[in-house]
Amino acid sequence: MKVLMFGWEFPPHISGGLGTACYGLTKGLASLKNTEVLFVVPKAFGDEDQSLIQLIGANKTAIAQKEFLFNETGTKIDYLEVNSEVIPYVTEEEFWTLKNQTTYKKARFIKTDEGFNVDFSGGYGPNLIGEIKNYAVVADIIARENDFDIIHAHDWLAYPAGIAAKRASGKPLVIHVHATDFDRSGGNVNPTVYAIEREGMEIADKIIAVSNFTRQTIIEKYNIPPEKIVTVYNAVEPQTNKHNLNIKKGVNEKLVTFLGRITMQKGPEYFIEAAHLVLKKKDNVRFVMAGSGDKMAEMVERVAHLGMADKFHFTGFLEGEDVNQMFQMTDVFVMPSVSEPFGIVPLEAMQADVPVIISNQSGVSEILKHAIKIDFWDTYAMADAIYGLLTYPALSGFLKKSGKKEVGGLKWHHSAKRVQEIYENLLNV
Amino acid sequence: MKTICLFFEVHQPFRHRKYRFFDIGNDHYYYDDYANETIMRKIAEKSYLPTNRVLLKLAKELNGNFKVAFSLSGVAMEQFELYAPEVIDSFKELTRTGCVEFLSETYSHSLASLKDKTVFEEQVRLHDQKIFELFGQKPKVFKNTEMIYSDDIGAQVCQMGYQGMLTEGARHILGWKSPNFLYVNARNPRLKVLMRNFKLSDDISFRFSNNNWSEYPLTAEKFTGWLKKLDSNEEVVNLFLSYESFGERQPKESGIFEFLERWAQLVAEDNSLKFATPSQIIKELQPVSVVSVPNPISWADEERDLTAWLGNEMQKEAFENLYELRRRMASCTDPKLIRDWNYLQISDHFYYMSTKFFSSGEAHSYYNPFESPYEAFINYMNVLSDFKIRLNAVTPENEKEQEVAALHKLLASKEQKIKKMEAELQRLQKPKTRQKKTTKKRKA
Questions:
Q1: B319 pLDDT above the threshold of 80
Q2: CATH number for A396
Q3: Which of A348, B123, B171, B185 is deepest in the core (most CB within 10 A)?
Q4: pLDDT tens-digit series, residues B384-416
Q5: pLDDT in the model for residue A112
């Protein structure tokens, strides 16, 4: 069966867990028999790993230019013509050359009075809502031009695209909820985003949630019937041993790390309070907050206010190899998320032999046994767990060993199998 | 004639409160009084008291034909005194009927037998003393914590003056042999060994109210029938149960108390069955063979080994850390420290750290105050850290330091001696270099 999948980002151009999860899942699906994935992103850079899947950039799709009519709300009401010149490509190179030629020649329509831009940024810029709508327009065309059996859209940015494709093709739509706006906003949802999410969930034929935690949110906050939602846990790519023995800590002190966006969702302030408690009692330890986000300034101020700036460090946003280096220096990893649909980072930490402390308010806590679980608000418990891991070597030793083993069993292959089952059930009905 | 040996283990631990690292060095009280009291009251009312009532009734009705043995851990007795003194009274009343034998065990329901002879002996001594104070009996038969037994432990128990010991009739130990005979220790045949019939014991304590069990419902008649159907050569059936099986694990509503009463009456009436206490059995029966247990066994889990307490690195680390203190504790006379030392040894603390049952955590979740073994470990180590600080204040840091201190003293006195002699030598003559050299060496 062929799956038309809509995402927003794809490695190596990612900003968070979404791209990683999409990549893992598609790879897992590609390794299964009878499943082929056609993955669409708003912007294809060309350096993505396409060994296992076909990747289509919406920015590279030829779109006919005639008339697109939109009403005030921006909903497409009529679609008149698509370009019939989508080229049946043979080799990859040929495809790109041909595509590029046609696209740029004919892509002008988007610069018409509607104010659209076909050159998607693929990011999360100010014109996000506009881009999402454009993405849906292009999705419609892609759906008409390609042959597939099922549609799968990842997260709200791609729901409109998925809906458009469903309307165009009549094929069943699966939406994959990696997060809801309740996670991102801490309850103050953006009504536009909520509307898009809810529309996607209602139109979808099946919803995949990344944890029971998220599934519950979908049931309670979006009023979706429980039987429509299935939980499929994320997994983690097996890490080839990337240990670089040259990495050494500059100081002979223990390192406790927070790694993630510094936003309300991730609970950075609780980490700081816990750090403060630990530092009162223990001297040879340092804390690192790696990441960036809208709460960063506030956090820096709080650290200064508590008078522990000499022991608490901010690294800014880390990527790729820097993350691995960070893990290699880390003695304890903490994820104090307030609301975390899944949370792949602790799994990566465990792969790197780092014992982890995670909040009960994370999806990943539903599947992990060999991690210390605390409530994000319980900074005393968090501090106690940090202290325990730093002080009692038997504990960290045991967690490292059993954690690595446990995380080794979380394979995308298994998650993909579950997703495939969902496809099959949908298609048989 | 088959003898039925009915034995109950009674134990409740002193559970630790959430002891955070901030408390280390600041707060020296480790116990969750609220939880301990609530749990003790609950179990006393649901299990200990009603079961004692049934046994008392049986003892009076059956005129000495009913016999039962108990082992009460010292910490359980302490908790009775604190939270449920009527349980002690009801045990006393039961004892006065003359149908009860108290067995010896470790005071803290501890794992000391696996680590240190002296600590173990002290634990047993404390326990027997408490039993004597409360019930006026001097135990002659020993039952180790959780039925832990090995040839070595048995030999030591024999040396301590006990005539017999109870343990699990583990399948991997007995093989084709039956637990329904009296055995002797492999290293010292003077110690008799009673092996638990786990099948029949667990039928009551675990399966009684399980309606998925093919034998459900278990009636007193059926159970007595099973006992009578056993091979006629077999001499003793050892039913060793934890006392909470009655009323707690098997709730009152399941009819467990009625079962117990009716079954005991049936046994007493029957000509081919009778009750006896372990001491009587040891006196009356001839041992059939040696039982060889090179590695320690227990009555826990499917494996019948020690992995529930000492299975993972955390448990071993905590255990080693605790007993590292034993030599310094030997010279400690502070009653508060001794009390905490006893409570720290309670085996349940190690049980809570087990990672064995992540999947089927049922058995381990029984009144377990911790959400995860990691939390249990951190908490215990925090308590132990504080305890160490207190102990350091009383006795010097460690033996090494003690030794170093002693050596320092010695060195100083020698140095003085040398100086004296040097002065003397100088005064007397010149050839003194050689002597000086040797003294230097000594100094180094």
A1: yes
A2: 3.40.50.2000
A3: B185
A4: 999 998 988 877 666 666 777 678 778 888 989
A5: 32
Residue A171 lies in a domain: yes
Please report whether residue A57 resides in a domain: yes
Q: How many CB atoms lie within 10 A of CB A281?
A: 16
Q: How close does chain B come to A411, measured CA to CA in Å? A: 19
Distance of CA B379 to the CA centre of its chain: 22
Q: Which residue has the higher pLDDT, B323 or A37?
A: B323
ipTM of predicted assembly, 2 dp: 0.75
For B212, residues 6+ apart whose C-beta sits below 8 A from its C-beta are none
CB B130 within 8 A of CB B337: no
Tally of domains within chain A: 2
Look up the domain containing A166 and give its range. Answer: 2-235+413-428
Of residues B307, B281, B315, the one with CA closest to residue B384: B315
Residue A242 lies in a domain: no
Contact B197, B180 (CB under 8 A): yes
Interatomic CA distance for residues B198 and B238, integer angstroms = 8
Summarize the confidence of residues B258-270 as an average pLDDT: 94
Domain check: are A423 and A342 in the same one? no
pLDDT at B274 over 70: yes
One domain, residues A22 and A133: yes
- Bridge partners, B132 (sequence order): none
Side-chain-side CA neighbours of B159 within 13 Å: the count stands at: 11
Report the distance separating Cα A265 and Cα B265, nearest Å. 66
Q: How many CB atoms lie within 10 A of CB B246?
A: 28
Q: Which residue of B has its CA nearest to A370?
A: B374
For A185-221, what is each residue's pLDDT tens digit?
877 888 999 999 999 999 999 999 999 999 999 999 9
Residues of B with CB under 8 A from a CB of A: 20-22, 24, 312-314, 316-318, 355, 358, 371-372, 374-375, 377-378, 381-382, 385
Angle at B117 between CA B114 and CA B120, to 5 degrees: 75
User: Are A418 and A400 within one domain?
Assistant: no
Same domain assignment for residues A116 and A228: yes
- Measure the CA–CA gap between B348 and B109, rounded to whole angstroms: 8
Least Cα separation, residue A337 to chain B (angstroms): 19
CB B131 within 8 Å of CB B102? yes
Are B314 and A387 in contact (CB < 8 Å)?
Answer: no
Outline where A107-190 has alpha helix (H): 128-145, 155-169, 181-185
* Judgement on whether residues A187 and A73 belong to the same structural domain of the protein: yes
B146 a catalytic residue: yes
DSSP character at residue B368: -
0.95 exceeded by pTM: no
* Cβ–Cβ < 8 Å for A229, A212: no
Residue at A240 is within a domain:
no
Q: For residue A428, name the pLDDT band (cuts at 50, 70, 90).
A: confident
